[in-house]
Amino acid sequence: MTYRDPTEAVQPHTTRDLCLFILPLALVIILFHFWGNRSSVAMESPSLLRWIMAQWTHAGGDFSHGWIMPIISLGVIAMRRRELLAAPRRQNGYGMLLVIFCLALHWAALRAQQPRVSLVALATLLWAIPLYLYGWAFARWLLFPYGYLMLSFTSYLLVAFTFPLRLTASGLSTHILNGLGIAAIRHGTAIHSAAGGAFNFNVADPCSGLRSLAAMTALAAPFAYMTQRTALKRWTLFLLSVPLAMLANTARIVTIALVAEGFGQDKAMALYHDFSGYLVFVLATLLMIGAGATLNIDIADKIRQWKRNYTPDI
Questions:
Q1: Considering only CA atoms, which of 210, 198, 290, 200 is closest in space to residue 249?
Q2: How far apart are CA 201 and CA 253, in angstroms?
Q3: Does residue 28 contact residue 129 with C-beta atoms inside 8 Å?
């Protein structure tokens, strides 16, 4: 008879491992599909999964990319499969407490007809189950897929910032135009030419930058995760996506005013207005890539190289 230390991590067999992982996740999907939404709004499905797909589809296009984000989460899990298979596994009691909490949260959200709260419970439950079954050493590799899934479910919170974004964009654009020598004044979210009426337009909701902000945060998260080595740099690059998106949207508004100044407002608000939306996203993406490359610079190594190259021999 051989003695085994009870504190030693046990590696389950592959078949049992797969069943333990798939079965509870399948039960979760079934639960949230058939008993996921009790909203009293007519024609809404009881499936929470169909509900969130409808939100992504009918949100004016601002979050139409949302369905891609869960697929990216699955892709990251597939990419980390070696780390997941090699991780020591041990059941974690805190994971079971989190599972119970998520189920209770979903029950309360179902009674209160709050499907958005149920989405938070769903995303957390999908991480809590592996935490309970396999422990922290396994579940920590799922933190990014879990966080990214949560982001796809909660990006709608950005809608609350639509009007502040309009005010910020119009204010910055007015300052930049005046700095360029083009007299402009702002009234609320409207920008007027103060030198002859070359342009007179309002920064409406579609021009607030919400769409580019939602798309940039969705793009910046996996980009930062893949390109940065430390958690601090990843979070820094992800948070930088917010001002970068706002800066790119401000550049769009300024260029629309410049085109209006040179060729008239009708031409500026016709073809260029629609085309510039793509330019905004390209500009923001390039700024993000540049920020990522800057964060990857090893400053200490650069200083050592500078000392070696410019320190005179004695």
A1: 210
A2: 10
A3: yes
| Residue range 259-270: mean pLDDT, rounded | 82
Residues 71-102 have pLDDT tens digits of 999 999 999 989 988 898 888 999 999 999 99
Q: Where are the alpha helices (DSSP H) in the chain?
A: 14-34, 48-57, 68-79, 81-86, 93-111, 115-134, 136-139, 143-154, 162-179, 210-227, 231-263, 265-267, 273-295, 299-310
Identify the H or E element spanning 200: strand 200-202
Token pair 């389950």 is found at 12
CA-CA distance, 31 to 29, in Å (whole number)?
Answer: 5
Beta-bridged to residue 193, according to DSSP, are 184
Kindly report the pTM of this predicted structure.
0.85
Give Cα 38 distance to the centre of its chain.
27
What is the distance between the alpha carbons of residues 115 and 242, in angstroms, rounded to a whole number? 27
Task: State pLDDT tens for residues 112-126.
Answer: 989 999 999 999 999
Neighbours of 246 (CB within 10 A): 20
Give residue 226's identity as a one-letter amino acid code: M
Reduced to 3 states (helix: H, G, I; strand: E, B; else coil), residue 198 is coil
Residue 212 near residue 284 (C-beta atoms within 8 A)? yes
d(CA 195, CA 264): 14
User: Domain residue spans in the chain?
Assistant: 14-157, 160-301
